[in-house]
Amino acid sequence: MGDKKLIDFEASLASTTHDMKNSLGMMLNSLDEVVNNCTAENCPSHRHLLHMQYEANRLNNNLIQLLTLYKMDNDQLSMNISHYSVSDLLEETLLQSRPLLEYKDIKISVDCPDDLYWFFDRNLVLGVINNVLNNAFRYAGDRIVVRADELNGCLVISVVDNGNGYPESMLGSSVQTNRAVSFQSGNTGLGLFFASMVAMMHKNRDREGYISLSNNEENGGGCFSIILP
Amino acid sequence: MSNDLKNKKFLIVDDFLTFRQAMKQMLVSIGGNDIDTADSGENAIREMEMKSYDIILCDYNLGTGKKDGQQVLEETKHRNLVKYSSIFIMLTAENTMPMVMGAVEYQPDDYLIKPISKEVLRSRIERVLKKKADFEDIEKAIDNKEYMSAIALCDERVTKNPGNMLEYLRLKSNLCLTIGRYDDATEVFEMVLSMREIPWARMGLGKVHFFTGGYLKAKEIFQSIIEENRTFMEAYDWLAKTLHELGSLEEAQKILLRATEISPKAIVRHQKIGKISQEINDHDTAEEAFRSAIDIGKHSCFKSPVEYAGLAKSLLKKDSPEEELSVLGTARNEFRGNRDALLQTAVTEGIVYKETNREEEARKVIDEAAKILNGMSGTIPVEATMDLAKVCFDMGDKETGTKLMRDIVRNNHDNEQVINMVQDVFTDATLEDEGQKIISSTREEIIRLNNKGVRLVEDEKYEEAIEYFKKAAGGLPDNKIINANAAHALLIYMDKKGTNDQYIYQVLQYLEKVKMIDPSDEKYQKLLNLYEKITTSKTHQGA
Question: Most C-beta atoms within 10 A of its C-beta, which of A164, B1, B294, B520?
Answer without folding.
Answer: B294
